[in-house]
Write a structure and sequence with these properties.
The complex is a heterodimer of chains A (617) and B (160).
Chain A (H helix, E strand, L loop, with lengths): L6 H18 L2 E6 L2 H5 L2 H14 L6 E6 L11 E4 L3 E3 L7 H10 L9 E2 L6 E2 L6 H4 L17 H6 L4 H8 L3 H11 L11 H10 L4 E7 L8 H8 L1 H15 L1 E8 L4 H17 L14 E6 L9 H8 L23 E5 H13 L1 H5 L9 E8 L5 E6 L4 H8 L9 E6 L5 E4 L9 H6 L8 E6 L4 H15 L5 H18 L7 H15 L3 H5 L2 H9 L1 H10 L13 E3 L9 H5 L5 E2 L7 E2 L9 H5 L5 E3 L1
Parallel strand pairs in A: 1-2, 7-8, 7-10, 8-9, 11-15
Antiparallel strand pairs in A: 1-3, 3-4, 5-6, 11-12, 13-14, 13-15, 16-19, 17-18
Helix pairs in contact in A: 7-11, 7-14, 8-9, 8-11, 10-11, 10-12, 11-14, 18-19, 18-22, 19-20, 20-22
Chain B lengths: L8 H10 L7 H12 L7 H8 L3 H10 L11 E6 L2 H5 L2 H12 L12 E6 L11 E3 L2 E3 L4 H15 L1
The chains are: A alpha/beta (617), B alpha+beta (160).
Chain lengths: 617, 160
């Protein structure tokens, strides 16, 4: 491993990397090894591919690169063959021989692996022409699918650590902070606080300052930070070193979830390499800056995403938040000035330094600049990670990129901001998504989870789900949060059981207002949001549960049953075969019926029926 | 059940030393111990206190505050049902029900044969592949009722 004693050494090394890269003429196969594709079996595909290449004597001419997440996680494992950019999805071990023989040797496509657009039903060969990718603007994610996250060389070859050079040798610390301020970058963890102002405030306080990265991505349904740390850890590290130079810090921490083992592994490798080659440690690139980063693994507590709780946890204590009369930029970790930013925020920094604040602020809306990564999940055709400029409408994200709702079901709502966010109904689909617009409709950006719901999602059950989640995660210190959320959960539980009373809604409203106003930290003050937004936009569903004792979406088991509509049933017999309880009766080609005494409402018949004959009553 | 005799003291000591007996690393040390035994045996707590210079009460409060730490023995396979929002709207509750029936235990319990502990995890970040379950370090995506039943049988076979 080389060591970069100064800026020149790094530049010379980078130049040799790109020379080598241009000369080789090797074919590159990038295989996604993110957690999503990994769950579908990337390792097996990789093993088979290495063997098959050797069989055809192609191992010298082909580089197989295990890259970070490509974002289109649902179609994993994903393989892209360069230079053509051929996109193969859902690649299994059994397909590998065919890929090598057909595509690599003969130059022909393997038809069955070509992506078929679910909307237009057309086959699309190249990655960048697939609607899911075509309509995105991937600047943070640009290199995720191209580089091996365990290779520093790959990151350097795409221009990595150039921003650090600029920050160390061409700019003053105050100049860096000004550039970040001018760019309009706001915190991507949820709060949306201007990053430049945070840095400037932290730099004002004299004492040992800390640069901390919040990778305790706790919002269920959001996983962009995981993907960035797994796929491009150096971009986050580079952002942190620049922050250290700007603020004047010697010590950095990444607080990352224990549930993200691959992110921890890739980050550990990246940090080790940086230390060995002089990008971390004493006298970075000969600039005089001394800075190192440690990893701290969280223990599965949602509240640790809150700044003061996170810092308590870093100190080896239970992660309980404190009141923030004094902000953490003044007294945070070890009671010292601490700058805490989210993973995605740090990943934005190198780009801003390299390309300038003017370029960056040309993307996005008036008060929300740059792009934002959303995890588009739930009841949507193309699920995965989506990076779009701020101000893109919900409709563009859910329908143009996401391909709409599967199985011709009806869109009901999109939930943003995790448990602290809200549910946005159909009439706001043309809302441009940025920090302020989401807040106006009662939700929030959060870390960027976007969960799409269709007609089969019960909004009362969803509110119950979030409140139950927060009840478990409340640290229990302050009474409004601990007791208020519990009472809300009890009431919502009763409503879902069919025991709701007429005045429950007024009581819920009152409790929600109390918890919002009186709780100590952000967990409590935002906890009522899912209840408040569903009460506001989907009140009729609550009323159906309470007055008619019906769950229109067919989720709350005591409040509905399945029936088979004799007119639509053609007796295909599929429900009969699939029912685990033998609760469906009927002969082939005759209309069927459900025996309510045997039915456990598992929903298998409802999902199986292709003729909409199984109905919720 | 692990008895005092079964604890590999040099190994536990080594873990504490790996973190330079830094009391701020208490949680991570317990996670590493947990990786060996699938829980933190209470017998190691005095050693933690002594080497890290912390009080008993701090060790217990950290151990009980964080979900990844258990002071009770857990099964050979820890089955975690992801209950993140994306998995929830795709039917995670039905998956949990199927597993409860199959293993004949509730969430947080360990099966009579000591093989399986059933847990709920708030989100494993594989949201596009939901519903997801993890068994120890393996992730299984896009599962349904029958798939998880089959997966349990496979692990059972592995153990025998």
């Amino acid at each position: 491993m080389v060591t970069f004693a100064n800026q020149e050494a790094l530049q010379v090394y980078r130049a040799t990397l790109s020379a080598r890269h241009n000369k080789g003429g090797k074919r590159l196969i990038s295989l996604c090894s993110g957690s999503g594709c990994g769950a579908y079996g990337t390792a097996n595909v990789h093993r088979a591919l290495t063997g098959e290449l050797r069989k055809f004597g192609l191992q010298e001419k082909t580089e197989v690169r295990l890259t970070g997440c490509h974002g289109f996680c649902e179609k994993g494992p994903i393989m892209v063959i360069h230079p053509e950019g051929i996109f193969y999805s859902q690649v299994k071990e059994a397909h590998v021989a065919e890929i090598v023989e057909q595509t690599l040797v003969k130059g022909e496509l393997v038809q069955k692996l070509i992506f078929k657009d679910p909307t237009s039903k057309q086959k699309i060969v190249k990655e960048d022409e697939i609607p899911f990718y075509k309509r995105q603007q991937r600047i943070i994610f640009a290199n995720n699918g191209l580089i091996d996250p365990t290779s520093l060389d790959h990151y350097l070859a795409v221009g990595g650590y150039q921003a650090l050079e600029k920050a160390l040798f061409e700019m003053e610390p105050a100049g860096i902070i000004d550039e970040i301020k001018k760019s309009g970058l706001r915190g991507r963890g949820g709060g949306g606080f201007p990053t430049g102002i945070k840095w400037a405030t932290c730099a004002q306080h004299d004492a040992d300052r800390y640069v901390i990265c919040n990778a305790d991505e706790g919002d269920p349904g959001a996983y962009m930070d995981r993907s960035l740390l797994e796929g491009n850890p150096h971009s986050v590290i580079e952002g942190m070193i620049i922050a250290a130079q700007a603020i004047g810090s010697k010590e950095g921490y990444v607080y990352v979830r224990h549930e993200y083992p691959l992110a921890v592994a890739n980050l550990t490798i990246a940090l080790d390499k940086c230390r060995k080659c002089g990008l971390l440690g004493e006298n970075i690139l000969g600039s005089g800056l001394a800075f190192d980063i440690k990893i701290s693994r969280g223990g599965g507590a949602f509240v640790c995403g809150e700044s003061t709780a996170l810092m308590a946890s870093l100190e080896g204590k239970p992660g309980r938040p404190r009141a923030k009369y004094v902000h953490t930029v003044e007294k945070g970790f070890r009671n010292n000035p601490s700058n805490l930013n989210n993973v995605e925020t740090y990943a934005n920094v190198p780009m801003i330094i390299t390309k300038g604040a003017d370029w960056y602020s040309s993307i996005g809306t008036e008060h929300s600049k740059g792009t934002k990564i959303f995890s588009l999940v739930g009841k949507v055709v193309n699920t995965g990670l989506v990076e779009v400029p701020m101000g893109t409408t919900l409709r563009q994200i859910v329908f143009d990129i996401g391909g709409g709702i599967p199985r011709k079901k009806k869109f009901k709502a999109v939930q943003t901001g995790g448990p602290s966010g809200g549910c946005i109904p159909e009439r706001f689909l043309d809302l441009p998504v940025d920090f302020d617009e989401l807040a106006k409709v009662g939700s929030m950006m959060g870390s960027g989870g976007m969960i799409v719901m269709d007609q089969d999602t019960c909004m009362v059950d969803l509110a119950r789900y979030f409140v139950e989640f927060l009840k478990e995660e409340s640290c229990g210190q302050c009474i409004p949060c601990r007791e208020g959320i519990k009472q809300m959960a009890d009431i919502l539980g009763h409503i879902c059981q069919g025991e709701g009373k007429e005045n429950d809604l007024a009581l819920l409203q009152e409790l929600a207002d109390m918890v919002k106003n009186a709780s100590l930290c952000g967990l409590g003050t935002s906890a009522p949001n899912p209840v408040l937004t569903t009460l506001h936009y989907f009140r009729e569903e609550y009323e159906a549960h309470i007055r008619e004792k019906k769950c229109p979406a067919g989720v709350c088991k005591p409040l509905f049953h399945y029936e088979i509509d004799a007119e639509n049933c053609n007796g295909c017999h599929l429900c009969f075969l699939k029912c685990p309880q033998e609760a469906v009766a009927g002969k082939k080609k005759e209309s069927h019926a459900v025996d309510q005494d045997k039915c456990i409402k598992c929903g298998i018949c409802y999902e199986a029926c292709k003729f909409d004959a199984v109905v919720i009553r | 059940m692990t008895t005092t005799n079964a604890i590999d003291w040099p190994k536990v000591s080594g873990i504490i030393d790996k973190y330079q007996t830094d009391p701020e690393a208490l949680l991570m040390i317990m996670q590493d111990i947990s990786n060996i035994y699938n829980y933190v045996p209470q017998e190691v707590i005095p050693l933690l206190c002594e080497k890290l210079g912390v009080r008993n009460s701090l060790v217990y409060s950290v151990a009980t505050f964080y979900k990844t730490i258990s002071l009770e023995p857990r099964g050979k396979f820890i089955v975690s049902v992801c209950t993140g929002t994306a998995c929830h709207v795709r039917g995670a509750e039905r998956i949990a029900e199927a597993l409860q029936e199959k293993l004949n235990i509730h969430e947080g319990q360990t099966s009579a044969d000591g093989l399986f502990t059933l847990e709920a995890v708030r989100c494993v970040g594989c949201c596009a592949s939901g519903p997801v379950i993890t068994v120890n370090k393996d992730t299984h995506g896009g599962v349904d009722r029958s798939a998880v039943l089959k997966i349990m049988d496979e692990y059972k076979q592995k153990a025998s």
